[in-house]
Amino acid sequence: MADDAEHRDESVREEGSGRDTEKDEIMYTKLKNGTCKLYELEKQLPPLDAIRIRRGYIEQETGTTLENLGIFSIEIERVVKRNCENMIGTVQVPVGVAGPLLVDGEYAHGSYYLPLATTEGALVASVNRGCSAITQAGGAQVRILHDGMTRAPVFAADNVVHAKQVADWVKEHRDDLRAAAESTTSHGKMTDVVTFIAGTSVFVRLEFDTKDAMGMNMVTIASAKVAELIEQGTGARLISLSGNMCTDKKPAVINGIMGRGKSVVAGIELSHDLISQIFKTDAKSLSEVNVRKNLVGSARAGSMGFNAHAANIVAAMFIACGQDPAHAIDGSTCITTVDLTDSGAYVSVTLPSLPVGTVGGGTGLETQQECLRILGVAGGGNPPGTNARKLGEIIGAGVLAGEISLLGALAAQHLARAHKQLGRG
Q1: Does the annotation mark 324 as catalytic?
Q2: Which of 24, 59, 120, 370 is catalytic?
Q3: For residues 404 and 407, what is the distance between their CA atoms, to the nearest angstrom?
Q4: Catalytic annotation, pick one of 14, 324, 393, 403
Q5: Alpha-carbon distance 408 to 120, whole Å?
């Protein structure tokens, strides 16, 4: 118990200038009577004190003790300005490690330990088994097929003739739109623009190379400048800076076809002996599970993804590495294939939409920085963009490990037993 208490004292950085019960009560009263709002606390107090007061007020209002939310080691100054409003503390997620995983990519070359943030028992163990198989087989082949972050403003035209005129104008003024977009950023480059029409609605899907940033803020600001130019040049009315043809934080066929963020493919040749030794099954059974479960089952269910649990690995690595967790849904559109070969089976995963970055957003938090450093991708790459692509390749290889392991467990009828042994119940 003494060791636990000592660790807790070392972890708490949120006490700020110290606790003054009388002053705290004055602030609680102001919050209660509305003379001070929760979001205004940082204007009157140092960030750590603001967090403590806000948490204490929520404790009073809800009758809940929140002492564990107040234990954290991350530096707060940046967080309250860039990452989280009305902060009251942090939620801790266990981080496990799988590996080493041998990766043979264009950007990721070598052995990596994968940090996986999860509360799902058996996940890390499963990925770890897949990593072992891939490494023994000589390493995952990984490539980035496409790289581009998108934003798609929607405009209202007067009629369908006007809508076609707007689309034509965008095509004719592509260079002008690119110049306007790139005037807003020193890093991003507009790489493509495509228009779509639905009645009097005109969607302009803009695509950008955002280097090592995931780039959502960058492309949003650039798209606003482009939208102004389109309004001025066509008379169309901007309705929304995002028209859902981007498509952001929703599984979408357009992302599966055209890509968004990093489009990644990874594959590995597994020998008959390796499949038997590690997964206790055979190549034919592995293939049949994939066909009947991932392909036929997903098609029958109307799924947009054809995989076993790709989003599991994407989400775990996203949380650990400071990515936007909502984008983990893009991992669900993964397609897993198993091709029978004379020597065994070639297993591959295709992730058409993997929005990742190594600068900006949650990547600056100390704990997430440490996970990125484990992978050797923290911060900007040299040349710019290489770290984010490297991260995309590593995650793709991690997804491959997870898919192989679960397919093997299903083919050998081991899934329920593994979950029971590892506490899933």
Answers
A1: yes
A2: 120
A3: 5
A4: 324
A5: 19
Name the residue with tokens 């491959």: 400
User: Given this model, what pLDDT does residue 418 score?
Assistant: 53
Q: Which two tokens stand for residue 140?
A: 């995952």
Based on the residue annotation, tell me whether 109 is a catalytic residue of this protein. no
- Tokens 């054809």, located at residue: 306
pLDDT tens digits for 307-317?
999 999 999 99
120 is known as an active-site residue: yes
Q: Which of 319, 391, 373, 332 is nearest to 117 (CA)?
A: 319
Q: Which two tokens stand for residue 99?
A: 């590996």
Q: Which two tokens stand for residue 180?
A: 């306007």
Domain residue limits at 106? 95-147+257-421
Q: Please compute, for residue 156, the number of CA atoms within 13 A of its CA located in the half-sphere on the CB side.
A: 5
Query: Catalytic pick from 146, 162, 187, 419?
Result: 419
Assess if residue 218 is contained within a domain.
Answer: yes
pLDDT tens track for 290-347: 999 999 999 999 999 999 999 999 999 999 999 999 999 999 999 999 999 999 999 9
On average, the pLDDT of the chain sits at 93
Residue 246 lies in a domain: no
